[in-house]
Amino acid sequence: MRSVSSLASSRFLKKEDCGENGIVVTIKGISDSNVAKPGQPEDIKTILNFVEPKIKPLVLNSTNGNLIKKINGQDDMEKWGGTVIELYNDPSIFFAGEEVGGIRVRKPSKSAPKAGEAKSETWGETKEAIDEVVGGETEDDNS
Asked: Is residue 139 part of a domain?
């Protein structure tokens, strides 16, 4: 499916960039970047940069940071370089009270493809990993 939101240009990774089945990437490192749109006040966020040259940087949020910490075993983000993760579009993410979807991180399966290849995913495995990191129950509307 090609959504209208995929037409909007961004210098950062969007959920639509992850495709229907996710992408596997290797963390190159972190940086701080102004994510504000032109003409808006400065908004500095932590950014994940990837080894793969065609993959845009990802604005890191605390949930994805905690998921990477669990995968990598390091709380120090400076030690995440070389960590292989899978980025996927999770349709159940809420923002400002609305279900809008967004990018989530998980440990790639052995059969997970590198960026640009197709892969299937299961909600159950993803839900368990997220619940473990955030310490609660994710609402499960997919059952």
From this structure: no
Q: Residue 118: which domain range?
A: 4-134
The Cα–Cα gap between 95 and 91 comes to 11
Q: How many structural domains are present in the chain? A: 1
CA distance 66 to 10: 25
- Does the residue 143 lie in any domain? no
* E-strand stretches of the chain: 23-34, 44-50, 58-59, 84-90, 94-95, 98-99, 102-106
What is the Cα–Cα distance from 21 to 86, expressed in whole angstroms? 10
Instruction: Name the pLDDT band for 142 (thresholds 50, 70, 90).
Output: very low
* Burial of residue 13, with CB atoms counted within 10 A of its CB: 0-12 exposed, 13-18 middle, 19 or more buried: buried
Sheet holding 44-50, edge to edge: 58-59, 44-50, 23-34, 84-90, 102-106
Q: Is residue 93 part of a domain?
A: yes
Q: Is 64 helix (H, G, I), strand (E, B) or coil?
A: helix
Rounded to whole angstroms, the maximal C-alpha distance in the chain is 44
Of 84, 82, 81, 80, the closest CA to residue 112 belongs to 84
Would the pTM of this model clear 0.85, i.e. be above it?
no
